[in-house]
């Protein structure tokens, strides 16, 4: 088990390195840098001005060098511009040029500086991640029990009326992407055209104070898409377990149907959905970006949209490191959890 | 000119009936679900005297009643459509006018179903689809949008207005508003589903949008399958280092949050660097490899046949390939025989959707091939001395077709959702494009005040994806029966 986890962690680090390099490469392509220079400097810069702006800040070094500097394995050079000013990526505003450290990268704990929000990337990510954490937590709280109940109820008597109605609901929700369900929810529950006005159409106020009115719709919108998927997986797994020999034995012994479902079938039927729930996290990330944009909730997803839209290189890299690790860690947990939950694998 | 109401004169009779039947139906479905927990299930009991007795009780009665109510609902819906087609324009309201616009689609749908059901025993898996109710409903929804794309977006029979034409005075107007200055009482005299924020017709834009989705989504899925199959089969068959490397790359792409990738790839700046074109050069090459190897591995022993077939398939494919990647005044501009240029916005969307989908297909194909590889007929082919590629493409692939077809349907739906996501974030396609994602995005901004511009494209997307999911379900059910 130890070797397995060690190998997986090694693979994880390698994956994260490759992915961040891809992000680094894409954000450092020349047209993107030009756009950055123009948004940070001024829009009417000439080509030479752009060139010198980039050179002064070290953006025109080869991409591998810059990547090494961002990681913190290569020293960041101090560049003297033609205007006589000394600049370094590592230098903070209140720091003299002698005090500037040679290395400032992820390994030194320095995530860089966001050009859009004018703040340290680490502070931005931690606050935004906290906000999204609440959203994710509530989504899980709604989605997992609902999906499991629907799935188990549908799967315990395969082909029954209940199964068919619940399966139809599950298929419909998997066919409803977040931007469709969100728009429909907003239309029904918040617009003056329908007139119910039960909830708020914007979740901006939920950043300070989560209430039923401002947070129900974002949570429901994300939960809906995942619910159907997990419920279908649970149903399939439950239906399979219900045809197993030991269930038949229990029935023939005269165990009541409720007891069969609760005591014999349920535990074995929940192994597969566990993996699925874990692997849903990357999808939730997608949903989070859409829903945060739709409801204007300024969390992780909203920040990602802002960073990508303005080519905020260091913030984007920070965000992708976090999201890649979320994806990889959930994959790891799902693998380990599967081994632990499944007695056949665990014992052998 | 008068505005249209939702159902017009027809509605005064039909609407109350519809609401009553629908209300009863919903109540009874709920009752049925609740009862199924308590009541004894409907079973057939065989009596000693050889007769069969149906046991049902309350639950049995309710479910019989439900069946009739559902039938009644369908009848009412058909009446709305048929009456709309037959009655003069406007007298059946907005619903009737839309049903009239969709006339070619209804005719094509009915023809498809009549022909398919008549000859279903001769049509293989496609025919078997018509044995499953779910599959038939799904197929109907999908074909509705396919025919809408053909007759509406391509032939322009269905839309009442141009997708970009603005009529002043119709900004954000509710459905059924009359177009100022229209003289003829007929199609085009009203904005059937209202006007959007720029005073364009929501109904027509939805129809034009179907063309973009129905063209791009299946094509992109097809390319993703070509890539996934061409890489997945050797990965599973040869295993070892090849498998390790390919699987690592596939997992790498899968670990990337889709939206981040889109935001990085689908920007005007990236298009400027020519990166999408280079990616297209690689990704679009896979169909050529696939068909080349497919033919060559089969006819290698008959060189004459082999060369003719290879030439017939590969030369046109290569011409299309070269035209597709070659565009005037871009990074790749060398090929003299350029038949068409793909708009850079469309190309980058297409390429990134293929790129995102291929690793999943790769994993599915690899998994299936790993399983099939151990079968006896593969061992038999190996003993016969067949080449690895022959075994992969002519022994393993045909036997994996069932799950692959099912996944193909599901994946078109997923691709549709991805395209919508791109439109929703305003990436790639031009902002005035009528595709569903972009129109939803535009409509949502004024959602609190006007709900009508965003809802039609949202329901269109929902029904198409739902149809594809149901179709996949039906296909899975029928292919499992074999």
Describe this protein's structure:
The complex is a heterodimer of chains A (348) and B (482). With 348 residues, chain A is an all-alpha fold. Chain A has helices spanning 2-27, 30-40, 47-56, 63-71, 121-156, 161-174, 178-189, 212-242, 245-253, 257-269, 271-279, 281-295, 300-309, 313-341, 343-347, and strands at residues 79-80, 86-87, 113-114, 119-120. In chain A, a hairpin with a 4-residue loop joins strand 3 and strand 4 (119-120). Chain B has 19 helices and 4 strands. Chain B has helices at 8-38, 57-86, 93-101, 103-118, 124-128, 133-154, 202-238, 240-255, 258-265, 268-273, 275-283, 285-299, 303-325, 344-372, 376-384, 388-399, 401-424, 436-444, 455-480, and strands at 43-46, 52-55, 177-178, 190-191. In chain B, the strands form 2 sheets. In chain B, strands 1-2 form a two-stranded antiparallel sheet. In chain B, strands 3-4 form a two-stranded antiparallel ribbon. Chains A and B meet through helix 1, helix 2, helix 6, helix 7 and helix 12 of A and helix 1, helix 8, helix 9, helix 10 and helix 17 of B.
């Amino acid at each position: 088990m130890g070797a397995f986890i060690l190998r997986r962690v090694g693979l994880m680090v390698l994956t994260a390195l490759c992915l961040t390099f891809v992000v680094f490469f894409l954000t450092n392509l020349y047209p993107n840098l030009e756009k950055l220079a123009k948004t940070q400097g001024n829009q009417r810069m000439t080509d030479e001005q752009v060139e010198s702006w980039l050179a002064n800040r070290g953006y025109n070094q080869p991409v591998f060098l810059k990547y090494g500097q961002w990681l913190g394995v290569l020293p960041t050079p101090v560049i003297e511009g033609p205007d006589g000013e000394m600049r370094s990526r590592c230098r903070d505003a209140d720091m003299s040029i002698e005090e500037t450290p040679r290395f400032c990268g992820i390994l030194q704990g320095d995530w860089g500086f966001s050009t859009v929000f004018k703040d340290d990337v680490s502070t931005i990510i931690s606050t935004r991640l906290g906000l999204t954490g609440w959203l994710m937590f509530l989504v899980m709280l709604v989605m997992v029990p609902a999906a499991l109940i629907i799935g188990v109820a549908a799967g315990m008597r395969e082909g029954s009326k209940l199964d068919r109605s619940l399966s139809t609901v599950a298929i419909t929700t998997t066919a409803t992407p977040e931007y469709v369900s969100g728009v429909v929810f907003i239309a029904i529950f918040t617009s003056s055209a329908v007139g119910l006005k039960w909830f708020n159409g914007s979740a901006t106020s939920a950043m300070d104070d989560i209430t039923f009115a401002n947070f129900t719709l974002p949570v429901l919108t994300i939960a809906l898409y995942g619910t159907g998927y997990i419920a279908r997986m649970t149903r399939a797994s439950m239906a399979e377990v219900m045809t197993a020999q030991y269930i038949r034995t229990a029935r023939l012994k005269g165990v009541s149907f409720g007891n069969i479902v609760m005591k014999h079938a349920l535990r074995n039927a929940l192994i597969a959905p566990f993996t699925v729930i874990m692997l849903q996290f990357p999808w939730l990330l997608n949903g989070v970006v859409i829903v945060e944009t739709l409801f204007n909730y300024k969390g992780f997803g909203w920040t990602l949209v802002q960073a990508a839209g303005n080519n905020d290189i260091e913030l984007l890299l920070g965000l992708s490191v976090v999201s890649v690790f979320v994806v990889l860690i959930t994959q790891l947990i799902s693998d380990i959890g599967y081994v632990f939950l499944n007695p056949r694998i665990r014992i052998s | 000119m008068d505005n249209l109401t939702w159902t017009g004169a027809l509605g005064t009779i039909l609407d109350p009936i519809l609401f009553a039947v629908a209300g009863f139906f919903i109540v009874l479905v709920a009752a049925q679900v609740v009862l199924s927990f308590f009541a004894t299930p409907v079973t057939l009991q065989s009596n000693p005297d050889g007769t069969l007795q149906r046991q049902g009780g309350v639950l049995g009665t309710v479910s019989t009643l439900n069946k009739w109510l559902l039938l009644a609902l369908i009848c009412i819906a058909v009446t709305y459509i048929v009456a709309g087609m037959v009655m003069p324009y406007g007298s059946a309201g907005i619903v009737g006018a839309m049903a009239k616009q969709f006339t070619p689609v209804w005719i094509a749908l009915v023809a498809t179903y009549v022909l398919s059901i008549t000859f279903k025993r001769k049509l293989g898996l496609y025919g078997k689809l018509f044995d499953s109710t779910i599959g038939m409903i799904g197929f109907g929804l999908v074909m509705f949008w396919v025919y809408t794309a053909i007759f509406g977006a391509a032939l322009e029979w269905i839309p009442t207005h141009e997708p970009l034409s603005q009529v002043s005075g119709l900004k954000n107007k509710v459905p059924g508003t009359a177009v100022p200055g229209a003289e003829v009482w007929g199609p085009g005299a009203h904005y059937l589903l209202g006007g959007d924020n720029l005073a364009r017709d929501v109904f027509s834009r939805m129809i034009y949008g179907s063309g973009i989705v129905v063209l791009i989504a299946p094509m992109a899925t097809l390319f993703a399958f070509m890539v996934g199959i061409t890489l997945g089969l050797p990965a599973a068959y040869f295993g070892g280092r090849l498998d390790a490397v390919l699987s690592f790359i596939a997992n790498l792409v899968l670990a990337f949050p889709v939206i981040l990738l889109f935001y990085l790839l689908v920007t005007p700046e990236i298009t400027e660097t020519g990166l999408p074109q280079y990616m297209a050069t690689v990704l679009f090459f896979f169909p050529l490899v696939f068909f080349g190897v497919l033919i060559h591995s089969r006819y290698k022993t008959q060189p004459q046949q082999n060369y003719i077939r290879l030439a017939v398939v590969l030369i046109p494919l290569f011409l299309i390939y070269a035209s597709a990647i070659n565009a005037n005044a871009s990074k790749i501009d060398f090929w003299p025989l350029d038949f068409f240029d793909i708009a850079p916005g469309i190309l980058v969307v297409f390429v990134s959707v293929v790129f995102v989908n291929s690793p999943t297909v790769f994993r599915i194909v690899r998994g299936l091939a790993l399983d099939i590889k151990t079968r006896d007929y593969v061992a038999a082919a190996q003993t016969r001395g067949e080449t690895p590629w022959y075994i992969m493409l002519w022994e393993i692939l045909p036997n994996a077709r069932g799950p692959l077809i099912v996944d193909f349907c599901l994946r078109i739906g997923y691709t549709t959702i991805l395209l919508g996501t791109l439109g929703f974030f305003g990436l790639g396609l031009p902002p005035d494009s009528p595709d569903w994602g972009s129109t939803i995005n535009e409509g949502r901004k004024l959602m609190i005040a006007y709900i009508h511009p965003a809802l039609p494209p949202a329901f269109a997307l929902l029904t198409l994806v739902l149809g594809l999911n149901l179709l996949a379900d039906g296909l899975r059910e029928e292919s499992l029966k074999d």
